[in-house]
Specification:
seven-stranded mixed beta sheet; globular; 19% strand; 7 strands; 208 residues
Amino acid sequence: MNNRNALIIIAKYPQKENVKTRLKGLLTDDERLRLYESLLHQTVHKLKSIPGVSTFIAFAPADSEAYFSDFGVNLIPLPAGDLGIRMFHAFKEVFIKGFTRAALVGADIPDLSGPIITGAFKILSANDLVFGPAKDGGYYLVGMSSLIKEVFEDVPWSSVQTLQRSLKKAELHGYSVGFTETLSDIDTVEDLKRSGLYFREKQELNNI
């Protein structure tokens, strides 16, 4: 294996019932679906060819492999369970494959870039864990230099306390932690309007 670093993009098969549900009322079902797919495609396109990094999509449900195979990257089907269970499974799979550092990101962070990922792996050369804080109190990136489970246990996902709870777990178990820059994901109406994507989306619809 030439690359020792694994990047995991965690994603859902795009269905109106399970993507960007907090944007109901601002966007129609079709608009929410198109927004999610646009963010997913942009994320994979930007991050699939970082030098020294092998990119994976960890996807759910496990029977949606045909859809994700079109992205041209390695795939990891995810089991049922909460976000913590799924993230830990994805990390376990890449460490089993022999990677020595791994980072996992969401598919809905417009400002995520290759240099941020490269920086995260550099941080992991001197730390057990790295987090990319999100402005809403969660995190858009988590990485580790060996398989760690505790930071995913008893964590309130999609909460203002998500990052702090994982950090407390890391401190309790003696893991060293570094941080990348703080970014915004796209979960709420406020996130979407602040990003400018809402207005571009509406302009595209008006031009059809």
